[in-house]
Amino acid sequence: MRIFFNYLFAALIGGFGYCLTEIIYRGRTHYSMFFAGAIVLTSFYFISTNFQIPLWGKCIIGMLIITGIELIFGIVFNILLKENVWDYSNVPFNFLGQICIPFSLIWFVLSGAVFKIMEKVTAGLSVK
User: Fold this and answer.
1) What are 87-117's pLDDT values in tens digits?
2) Contact assessment for residue 100 and residue 94, using Cβ atoms and an 8 Å cutoff
3) What is each CA distance from 26 to 20, 44, 57, 86, 123, in whole angstroms?
4) Does the pTM of the predicted model rise above 0.85?
5) If we measure between CA atoms, which residue out of 24, 107, 10 comes closest to residue 66?
């Protein structure tokens, strides 16, 4: 049961954290970003508690997870549902205006920070 609550806590922190980051960065967010953040941080928690990977490897995995979630959510919410949550069309090296290399590099760096914080937090938790 404790494992369930650890994952639930990660999902809630991820959801609220992603929304808060968007509000700070661009002044608004969208409800879908809560779910994107929940998926991302839950994935990071799973990786942190189940695999021994060097930080640079976690950064690459984190960047791919975030970029992948952005692509999926972008296709669903921006292209199919036309909700215009974000648009990277004016950013160099973008794909469909939904993901782009400059932001993927930002996700690489932020993933490292999140994984380091998660190491400290999970060190005190009994996850098994």
Assistant:
1) 999 999 999 999 999 999 999 999 999 999 9
2) yes
3) 10, 24, 29, 10, 33
4) yes
5) 107
Q: Cβ neighbours of residue 34 under 8 Å, at least 6 residues apart?
A: 15, 16, 18, 19
Q: What is the dihedral of CA 102, 96, 47, 24, to 10 degrees?
A: 60
pLDDT digits (tens, 9 = 90+) for 29-79: 999 999 999 999 999 999 999 999 999 999 999 999 999 999 999 999 999
Question: For 81, which DSSP code?
Answer: S
Four-point Cα dihedral 94, 44, 53, 108, nearest 10 = 30
Q: Measure the CA–CA gap between 108 and 123, rounded to whole angstroms.
A: 23
Which run of H or of E encompasses 57? Answer: helix 55-73
Tokens in use for 70? 């952005």
